[in-house]
Structures are given as C-alpha cells and as structure tokens.
Design brief:
The chain has 208 residues and is an alpha+beta fold. The chain has a single domain (4-163, 191-207), classed as Nucleoside Triphosphate Pyrophosphohydrolase (Alpha-Beta Complex). Helix content is 22%, strand content 36%. The protein contains five helices and eleven strands, in the order H-H-E-E-E-E-H-E-E-E-E-H-E-E-E-H. It has helices at residues 4-12, 20-23, 91-103, 157-160, 193-207, and strands spanning 42-53, 56-64, 77-78, 81-83, 111-115, 119-121, 126-134, 148-155, 165-173, 176-186, 189-192. Strands 1, 2, 3, 4, 5, 6, 7 and 8 form an eight-stranded mixed β-sheet that branches. Strands 9-10-11 form a three-stranded antiparallel β-sheet. A hairpin with a 2-residue loop joins strand 9 and strand 10 (176-186). The protein is globular and about 45 Å long. It starts with a helix and ends with a helix.
Length: 208
C-alpha cells in the first residue's frame, strides 16, 4: 500500500468534478426527476473517511440505528455525518464534528482532501455536502450507540469492482416497493440511495 491513492484523489478533487453524471450511475430511476433544493432545505455535511488497514485503503461507513420513527434513513448504510449546527463554522466543520461524534475518531487527525458534488435528498429535505478525508493510521473506532448500529470498514477496491454493483427490488414499507434499485453489495449490506451516489462519484474521481 502506498500514498498513491491519496495523492491522486487530492489532485483530482482540485479540478472540476464529474457531478450528476457520475452520481446518477447509482441512482434509482425516480431520482432522475429530482427537483432542485427548495429554499428551506436543511444543510448537512458527511465525511468519506479513508484509512490504512491490512495493506489496503478502507472506507468508513456506518449502519444507522433504526429506532427513531422520524428518521427517514434509519437502518440504512451511510457516511458519518449529519445536519449543520449553529456552532459549526462551515459544512467541513459539520462533517468532522459528526464523524467524531458518531464513530469516535479524533477530528484533528483527519486531513481533508476536498469535496464531492452536493446532493439533494428530497425525502428528508437535506442538501448534503460530502467531503473526502483520510487518517494515516488505522483508527480505533468508538460508535455512538444512539446513532450507529455498526461501523463498516470496507476495502475501497471493492467499490472499483463491477461485481459489487447490482440491482434489486427494495421493500421500504408495506405499501412501497422500489424496482431495480442500483446498490453496492459490500459486507452483506445494501449500500444504496444518496450514499451509493456519492460513492459512485468518488469512484469516478479516482478512475478519471
């Protein structure tokens, strides 16, 4: 394992991003008609955190708790992150603070490489700004039990393998079934929706 991946990402993130073209490779058909964010959309920041483990770069994901009736993303896989608080200087600060709270990493140890394209999530009315960062050592994670069921440490190369990109029907509620939903199949988890779209752009950035 070398720093080559990190150097390539940092260099590429300084240039124009692939944006929607890359995001929508892993988007369900209903997302193609997503309207622009309304004026009252809430701001959020998330962190795509890379770290070295077993001679490979890993990406940090969380399986969210599913015990809050009003959480439209409960039980799903996502990046660490959340809504912006008044005390946050900017959305970078939001992403770092939320990552520290949810997975227990030291925010001061994270080196930010740049941002991906903003993504609007209509179901929760969030404008999400993803950031890419890394830690130069394997962190000791400490999940926040109120928010996180499990921390997933996924080798990043798995997202570069087309075999992990699949489609299936998702039964979200008894009365709602989404057909042919694109997803990443990693760690026996279904990574779909906004998180899959962000990862799709991150992969495109690296492969460009």
């Amino acid at each position: 394992m070398t720093q080559n991946l990190i150097s390539r990402l940092e260099d590429r993130l300084r240039r124009p991003l692939p944006g929607r073209a890359a995001q929508y490779q892993m988007a369900h058909a209903v997302r193609q008609d997503t309207p622009p964010p309304p004026p009252d959309a809430r701001e959020a920041g998330v962190l795509a955190l890379l770290f070295p483990k077993e001679q490979d770069w890993h990406l940090t994901l969380i399986l969210r708790q599913n015990n809050k009736p009003n959480d439209r993303h409960g039980g799903q896989v996502s990046f660490p992150g959340g809504k912006r608080e008044q005390s946050d200087a900017d959305l970078q600060a939001t992403a770092l603070r939320e990552a520290e709270e949810e997975v227990g990493i030291d925010r001061t140890a994270v080196r930010l490489l740049g941002g991906l394209s903003e993504l609007y999530i209509p179901v929760s009315n969030f404008r999400v700004q993803p950031y890419v960062g890394f830690i130069d050592h394997q962190p000791t994670f400490n999940p926040q039990p109120e928010e996180v069921q499990e921390i997933l440490e996924v080798p990043f190369r798995q997202f570069l393998d087309n075999q992990t990109r699949r489609k299936k029907d998702l039964h979200l509620y008894p009365q709602l079934v989404l057909r042919d939903v694109p997803y990443f199949d990693v760690h026996d988890q279904t990574v779909w929706g906004a998180t899959a779209m962000m990862i799709s752009e991150l992969v495109a950035v690296l492969e460009d």
